[in-house]
Amino acid sequence: MVDIIKNEDLMEAIEQFYFAYRSFTAGPDRVLQERSLGRVHHRILYFVGRNPHISVNALLSVLAVSKQALNGPLRVLVDQGLVNTEMSTEDRRIKQLTLSPEGRKLERQLTRIQMQQLDAVFSRAGRKPMQCWLDIMREIPRVGPL
Amino acid sequence: MVDIIKNEDLMEAIEQFYFAYRSFTAGPDRVLQERSLGRVHHRILYFVGRNPHISVNALLSVLAVSKQALNGPLRVLVDQGLVNTEMSTEDRRIKQLTLSPEGRKLERQLTRIQMQQLDAVFSRAGRKPMQCWLDIMREIPRVGPL
DNA sequence: GGATAAAGGTCAATATAGTTTACCTAACGA
DNA sequence: TCGTTAGGTAAACTATATTGACCTTTATCC
Predict the structure, then answer these.
(1) Does pLDDT of B2 surpass 80?
(2) Structure pTM?
(3) What Å value separates CA A87 and C1' D28?
(4) Statement: residue A2 has pLDDT above 90
(5) How many Å apart are B3 CA and D10 C1'?
């Protein structure tokens, strides 16, 4: 059985992964900078948007940051009225996070940039290559750390 | 003409891109931490390894950081004997960077972690999906910023 | 009921990583 | 010689993240 994957392919993959991710985050970063927000704010908006009523602890786990690193940015978003909090009815220790309409608006603005970028590439490549890409991306954390 | 790419696909792509990249960088980060080095050192080692005799300015461009942000980490690597410098013979202002044997060793150690991770996924997926993945990654910076 | 644990919040100290601004030398080239 | 380029440094600043310690409120377990 021969190796179907060449070292040169793997080297190029490493490089393109770096360049692609850098480009992928650059768009939202620019919008965020105008509001003096950073990537953590973006991630909060994204994951709260995708998981309404998520608890602070759950958010902590998915973002893999310390409580203190989350708390500052989260408070900013709550203070600016982009994220709403409500007590859980079953367990009143738990704070449930949701996006406000304005928070949803910003989240969509940021997400749209990345969606457009990916859509431009996926549309040209076709549906099947997109599926391959997505399958591979899903597997990467499963064979590595985190 | 219908949209072949669904919004839900794009949303998942955004998310998997984030998780995959985080996992992808976590392995080398751990090794680097033991030596008190960071990602900039890694990028320097990687690009100098791939482009021997690269100039400081060229490295600056490819990494897209300020001269000051590069200078510290680069000096550390030179002081530790991981990167060698030599004057260009045609233009003695230009400093050419290459990896020392020990620098090459560390670069290979770091790169191997990421190569193994990608190889595990690519081998299972097959050569054609890998090509799709790589083609898409190559295109992402071409339709976006940077 | 009382101990313990869990969810969340906050402060302080620290580390790192990056920025901009500014100024320096050495070498090239017209 | 003069302007430009390659490279090096320093200061002040910003941000992002860490760990450790300590606090309240609420739930749960015995």
Answers:
(1) no
(2) 0.93
(3) 19
(4) no
(5) 55
Q: Rounded to the nearest 10 degrees, how much is the dihedral formed by the CA atoms of B99, B119, B114, B13?
A: 130
B66 touches strand D (CB under 7 A): no
User: Could A13 and B133 be called an inter-chain contact, meaning their C-beta atoms sit closer than 8 Å?
Assistant: yes
Long-range contacts of A89-94 (CB under 8 A, 24+ apart): A94/A55, A94/A56, A94/A57
Instruction: From residue B142, give the alpha-carbon distance in Å to each of A115, A117, B4, B13, B78.
Output: 15, 9, 21, 18, 34
Tens of pLDDT, residues B58-95: 999 999 999 999 999 999 999 999 999 999 999 999 99
Rounded (5°) CA angle B88-B90-B91:
65
Q: Do B15 and A50 touch (CB under 8 A)?
A: yes
Token readout for B135 is: 């083609």
